[in-house]
Write a structure and sequence with these properties.
The protein is of the alpha+beta class. Helix content is about 25%, strand content about 20%. The chain is globular. The two termini are about 20 Å apart. It binds FE2/S2 (inorganic) cluster (FES).
């Protein structure tokens, strides 16, 4: 079960939702289902408009993720990650705090999503 709390100045208050992890849904699709106003354009990992900050909550170790080359490229181009950050992240099997909501596949963890 993914436990996702959305937080943004664009919302009146934080919203926590639950979703089934591993059902191949993106964070953006869950946000859309709950009328969370994350900005997006391409929905294909190319424009960078859906960038969000993801903080893993709880006591569990954050799960490592493999970003697609497309997501890495967009996050580097918009200044959220450096190539050194990506190397460090991949070497240590850790997730970056900046993600593209349209590329973020839900994991079984509790996260705070800021945008
Ligand atoms: S909507 Fe374009 S990168 Fe996510």
């Amino acid at each position: 079960m993914a436990n996702i709390t959305f937080s943004s100045p664009a919302m009146k208050k934080d919203l926590t939702v639950y979703a089934v992890a591993g059902d191949r849904r993106t964070l953006l699709s869950v946000a859309q289902e709950h009328q969370v106003p994350i900005h997006y354009e391409c929905e294909n990992g190319e424009c960078g408009s859906c960038v969000v900050e993801v903080l893993v909550l709880g006591s569990g170790k954050p799960k490592g993720v493999h970003l697609t080359e497309k997501e890495k490229t967009v996050l580097v181009l918009n200044g959220k990650l450096s190539k050194e950050d990506i190397e460090h992240m991949e070497l240590n099997d850790i997730a970056p705090k900046w993600r593209l909501a349209c590329q973020y596949m839900l994991l079984d963890e509790e996260v705070l999503v800021k945008f």
